[in-house]
Amino acid sequence: MNEARHFNSAISINGAVYSVGGYESNRTAECYNPVTKRWNYIASMNYGRHCCGICTHNDLIYVVAGLIASSVENYNPATDKWHLCANIPAGGSSGYTRSAVVENNIYSVVDMQSDGFNLCFRLDPREGRWDDVKEMVGGSNDFGLVSYGHSLFYIGHGCCKRLDVRMNKWESIPSPQLGRYGFSAVIAADDIYVLGGETFYRARQYVTSVDRFNIRKNAWTAIESMAIKHIAGGAAVVSGCFD
Question: With a threshold of 0.85, does the pTM exceed it?
Fold first, then answer.
């Protein structure tokens, strides 16, 4: 990339990969073209952020909150412009944030640093209003969030849960045998992949193995390890391949 990025967020849309924010880069964002194999800058965000949630909805990229941030904005790749949206009601105590889309709603789980637990919020982009999903989620300060069908999957350190949005109820699911921090979680077909990270927070003992959770079988398996060390970055799926 054009800039070093740490605790950035990544997403794919229309065959391209977008990487936004991070400790070092803050407001800037870049786009990767798999055909030309080049990164190019796009318009900078209105606010700097890291550890933010990211997802796509109706051909727009949404970035949500992040460490000590409550602002939300979306990006239109067709116009190369960012637009501010309604702030998430997490206030200045928000921390690590992850987002995913289920049934045309954007769900975001936020690490509430001051209270030591996670909260889940839901945004209907058509109404532009955030609602609180009442039940508390886990207690991890490092987690991934993906969606499948009517469900939201929360993958945390030693705590994994599934939310059926029709019932608005969280239930526990198995956790991978190997706990890790600073990992990335993505979904492809019926499988959730957890990759990268380290064994303990700031231990710098990197994990190169990849864990795969099959949603239909409700079970984890370990698959081939990565060739690189990957921590506190972003991952996205393009045409069934990880970037």
Answer: yes
